[in-house]
Specification:
mainly alpha; 2 strands; 112 residues; two-stranded antiparallel ribbon; single chain; 4 helices
Length: 112
């Protein structure tokens, strides 16, 4: 008969858990936002590591670029960051803090 062991948080995890238990709810939200920021830094570094490589506009270069994007966005931390960004954008939209976007004559995006 196989025995299952309970999850034991590491010392750092337990420290964070103890801190969270003592914080008021609004501070917990700030801590979660900061943790998401740190996750984003990992994703960004991963992106920066491969985005500096010069890619040609060949089908092979485009395919390689798409594969790198897919790999980056498949990481759990990227999904959390993207969800957080989407929630923030939706909150801004609902609160009326957004502007329209238009295309300039040279094809760039600009506020409407």
């Amino acid at each position: 008969m196989e025995m299952q062991t309970a999850f034991q948080p590491s010392t750092h995890e337990q420290t964070v858990i103890n801190i969270i238990r003592e914080l008021p709810p609004e501070r917990v939200l700030q801590l979660v936002d900061f943790a998401r920021f740190l996750e984003f830094q990992i994703v960004r570094k991963s992106y920066d590591d491969w985005s500096d490589e010069e890619e040609t506009e060949t089908e092979e270069g485009i395919r390689a670029s798409e594969e790198k994007w897919d790999e980056s966005f498949a990481k759990p931390e990227a999904k959390h960051v993207m969800r957080a960004m989407a929630r923030e954008a939706l909150d801004d939209y609902r609160a009326g803090r957004t502007t329209g976007i238009t295309t300039t004559p040279d094809g760039r995006l600009a506020p409407a």
